[in-house]
Design goal:
The complex is a heterodimer of chains A (454) and B (435). Chain A has 454 residues and is of the alpha/beta class. Chain A is built from eleven helices and 16 strands. Chain A has a domain of 308 residues: Alpha-Beta Barrel (TIM Barrel), CATH 3.20.20.140. Chain A is globular and about 65 Å long. In chain B, the strands form two sheets. In chain B, strands 1, 2, 3, 4, 5, 6, 15, 16 and 17 form a nine-stranded mixed sheet that branches. The chains are: A alpha/beta (454), B alpha/beta (435). At the A-B interface, helix 2, helix 7, helix 8 and helix 9 of A face helix 10 and helix 13 of B.
Chain lengths: 454, 435
């Protein structure tokens, strides 16, 4: 009997470990300059967090019993930054075995212990869009995460309730893959054809299943179940948001035409270095753009870029975000957003929207995060100095009201067990171009030599 | 009647405007005797002049100060409310050598072979590279452009970012580039294997330098054969040229300090120096100056503090090392002031960070008497801004290189002008009904 109780106990403990248990916290942030993004900037204002949610924003709020109080006098309180294009915390990035791999998902490759998560938190980032790579035309599904660092359970990082998203890719990356293997696509014509063919296949698949389901005939055999086609059908039905790797204006324009034909509405162009050239068309379609602040010239399709992209898009009414696609840039997205003031003189609020509410809208999580509003998740960051200033220092970062980064208690050595004699760590010296991760793992396709550039 | 007068006025002005445009082609730089007045001048070497004047004549700063007599024949440009700084110097780029990253044909910084110190970066600098105007309109006027690749990949050159031939751009300093052999473990390598690999590489390096020393001792004899590799290295041995040693990990830095001391070469500079903060005292003691960066970089080890790379220049500078900064970039060399800004924020302070991208850089390259500060007799390399150039929102108003007033445009600004309000917009055949 005792044994039975013990084994039940062990089972319960084990169950407790493997089940995701997202922590929530309570905190009162006093007397800060609160940059709400959606409702102006409030001086000397308090933000009260209860059970992971922003419960009140106002002046002279009192901390309920047992709630920690943080003095933010002279400091800036901002919504946590959202990176709409990231590959940190992913153990693999590209499933390159086919030009269409809609069936795979990044949710299966989340590494909760990647130190890049902590470094991103140290830059005020609270959510990321962990994306599949760009080696194929229709890549895998992405995963939206909250940076709840410290858990060993990947599921703890999932942004529960976030819409599903998927990666598409146009231009040089997928055509290089096609050329290397002697298959379609080897040109931007082939990319369009492959997308149209895939979506048509999905329509046929759906038709077959709809017919099968409409007939109440027990003896009829069902059509073959195909997870890839299931995913594509979900795209057609608007259940999955498409985030498409793209650079040139012509390919951006092409995909909007294709999606118009298939009635797909939810579309964000990732990178989109030439989105500025078709800004009126993007605004008309209602498509979004998630871009770099200033990266260009690392390949031909980004040679005709301009760092004024964010300003042109914003001023033409296109919802625009600035992303990192890099374990380095993600640490200072506030600075990347500030570059929209150098290049195009966006207002403070427009510049900060590029890394908060705009990416939240693009990921379909703007009802939860992206601004400081009562009822929203308490994903917050506190800065010494205005976050758009180069002299700003991120001090604290909260996810669901739980503090995951505090500069005051940040350890100079991040090892859990420190052996001063040990020198087993790899030392990585990266140059400015090594951070581009979109084509990571593409070598599994065995055309190594074609990707040796980056 | 009034309307007619107005029309008359308008028409009489139009030819003047048109004439003005012909006179000053906005695509061309121009030079004159300039007097830049009423600006706050950051000289870097002689403090700040709150309301000063700079006179530029024949490409050289002729006068600078609060009470400068403006020459009668000078073109006066009033910079009231503006700040003037010496042009920023990026001490590590491939500007002019690299055009499009992924296309081999567009990259000229890597030559075949391991020991090719005679390969001249200056030869391959494309004065019309798109990245050059993109960089200079951000206030970066000068760059060290370096070959990369093997152990001794070539000869770097300092260039001013304006000119139509490499010689018009040359800023008067060259240096041999060396990649210090590293004991950094590669994938599946044990530390012993890595150490052995480093030893072997070091043997190759030492072999080359040993030969170069012999060559140097006999090169003036009538029978000496011309040996370009050795000739290039002999310039370092004779102290005529700087030796830039790219070295990053702490153990490698210590090893490189020892190597330099054993060799006894004089003008040595360490570049990269990502883990300099771990051995800052030893670098300071060696007296070897460093070109550090990029500052906007991830820590080199998983366990390092997240801000290790931001702190690195400040730690070294405080230990007494002479520090210059580099972007380590080419097309985005324009981010040099932000690399300096982060270094300033994380320990270095604004004043030292400004020196690190102006006078320190110039002095490390051996041209501190020509550029790097706003002083009489120096080249007129400077820029005018709306404020602190490290601050992201600051606009660069004007740039002068070798006394030329540079057009404040690049392909990136041209694209902005063309596409901000594109014509036609959505509809090409929209009927215009209203003015």
């Amino acid at each position: 009997m005792k044994r039975k109780i013990l084994s039940i106990f062990i089972l319960l403990v084990a169950f407790g470990i493997t089940t995701a248990t997202a922590q929530t916290g309570d905190v009162l942030i006093k007397n800060g300059t609160v940059i709400t993004i959606t409702d102006g900037t409030l001086e000397n204002t308090d933000v009260l967090v209860r059970d992971g949610k922003i419960s009140r924003i106002g002046k002279n709020l009192n901390a309920p019993r047992g709630v920690e109080e943080i003095d933010a006098t002279g400091k800036f309180v901002m919504p946590g930054i959202i990176d709409a294009h990231s590959h940190i915390a992913g153990t693999s990035i590209n499933e390159g075995t086919s030009q269409v791999t809609a069936e795979v998902s990044m949710e299966d490759v989340v590494d909760p212990m990647d130190v890049s998560i902590y470094r991103a938190l140290a830059g005020g980032v609270t959510s990321i869009h962990l994306m599949h790579g760009s080696a194929n035309v229709i890549g895998g599904q992405n995963e939206t995460l909250k940076l709840r660092y410290g858990s060993t359970n990947p599921d703890d990082l999932r942004f529960e309730g976030a819409p599903r998203t998927i990666k598409f890719a146009l231009g040089e990356n997928p055509t290089r893959g096609g050329r290397a293997r002697g298959i379609q696509p080897q040109s931007r014509m082939g990319v369009e054809a492959m997308i149209r063919n895939s979506l048509n296949d999905a329509l046929m698949y759906k038709k077959a299943w709809d017919e099968y389901r409409s007939q109440r005939n027990d003896r009829k055999t069902p059509p073959e179940y195909d997870l890839r086609m299931e995913t594509l059908v979900d795209i057609l039905e608007g259940e999955i948001l498409v985030h498409c790797h793209s650079y040139r204006a012509d390919e951006i324009y092409m995909l909007m035409k294709v999606f118009n034909d298939f009635g797909i509405e939810k579309l964000t162009f990732q990178h989109a270095n030439e989105a500025y050239k078709v800004a009126p068309e993007l605004a008309e379609f209602g498509a979004y753009a998630s871009i770099f602040s200033d990266w260009w010239a690392y390949k031909l399709e980004v040679y005709y870029s301009t760092a004024y992209n964010a300003a042109i898009l914003t001023k033409n009414g296109v919802n625009t975000s600035i992303n990192s696609d890099s374990g380095e840039l993600i640490r200072h997205l506030y600075h990347e957003a500030a570059k929209s003031q150098k290049y195009g003189q966006l207002s403070d609020n427009d510049a900060l929207a590029l890394i908060t509410i705009n990416p939240a809208i693009q990921l379909g999580i703007d009802d939860r995060v992206g601004s400081i509003e009562e009822g929203k998740d308490a994903d917050l960051a506190i800065y010494e100095g205005h976050p758009l200033s180069v002299y700003t220092v991120p001090l604290m970062t909260f996810v669901d009201g739980v503090k995951y980064f505090d500069r005051a208690t940040d350890a100079k050595d991040q090892r859990l067990y420190i052996d001063p004699e040990s020198n087993i760590q790899d030392i990585q010296i990266l140059d400015a171009h090594d951070h581009h991760l979109c084509m990571k793992d593409a070598e599994v396709m065995d055309f190594n030599s074609l990707f040796n550039n980056k | 009647m009034k309307k007619r007068i107005l029309k008359l006025l308008v028409f009489s002005f139009i030819p003047v405007l048109v004439f003005g445009q012909i006179q000053e082609d906005p695509r061309k730089a121009r030079t004159a005797k300039f007097a830049l007045t009423n600006a706050k001048i950051y000289t870097v070497t002689n403090g700040i002049i709150e309301n000063g004047t700079i006179v530029i004549n024949n490409g050289i700063i002729e006068a600078v100060g609060a009470d400068v007599a403006i020459p009668n024949d000078a073109e006066v440009i009033n910079y009231e409310g503006r700040e003037i700084y010496p042009g920023m110097i990026d001490s590590g780029t491939q500007l002019g050598l690299a055009e499009i990253g992924s296309i081999d044909e567009a990259n000229d910084f890597r030559e075949f072979g391991d020991i090719t110190p005679q390969m001249e970066a200056l030869t391959a600098v494309n004065p019309n590279s798109e990245a050059i105007p993109v960089t200079r309109v951000s206030g970066v006027t000068t760059a060290l452009t370096m070959p990369r690749g093997g152990v001794l990949p070539g000869t770097a050159a300092t260039i001013n970012l304006f000119g139509y031939t490499p010689d018009q751009m040359f800023a008067g300093s060259k240096g041999i580039v060396m990649t210090y052999p590293t004991a950094q473990r590669r994938w599946r390598q044990t530390q012993e294997q890595a150490d052995r690999a480093k030893e072997r590489a070091l043997e190759t390096v030492n072999d080359a330098w040993d030969k170069a020393e012999v060559y140097t001792s006999i090169k003036n004899s009538p029978d000496a054969r011309y040996y370009p590799e050795m000739q290039a290295l002999s310039e370092v041995i004779e102290g005529n040229m700087t030796l830039y040693i790219e070295v990053n990990t702490a153990p490698d830095i210590l090893s490189a300090i020892e190597w330099v001391e054993e060799r006894g070469y004089e003008n040595v500079v360490f570049t990269g120096v990502a883990e300099g903060w771990r051995v800052a005292e030893q670098i300071a003691e060696s007296g070897i100056p460093v070109i550090a960066g990029p500052v906007l970089s991830t820590p080199t080890r998983q366990s390092d503090a997240y801000d290790a790379a931001y702190m690195n220049p400040g730690v070294m500078q405080k230990a007494g090392v002479k520090v210059a900064l580099r972007s380590g970039d080419t097309e985005n060399s324009r981010n040099l002031p932000y690399n300096a800004g982060f270094a300033a924020t994380y320990g270095m302070g604004r004043e030292e960070a400004l020196k690190a991208i102006t006078i320190n850089a110039a002095e490390i390259m051996g041209i501190g008497d020509q550029i790097g500060s706003i002083e009489v007799g120096k080249k007129a390399n400077l820029f005018v801004s709306t404020g602190d150039p490290f601050e992201t929102s600051t606009q660069i108003v004007d740039v002068y290189i070798d006394g030329y007033l540079i057009p404040m445009r690049s392909r990136q600004t041209d694209l902005y002008d063309e596409f901000l309000n594109r014509t036609p917009g959505l509809n090409k055949t929209e009927v215009i009904t209203d003015m």
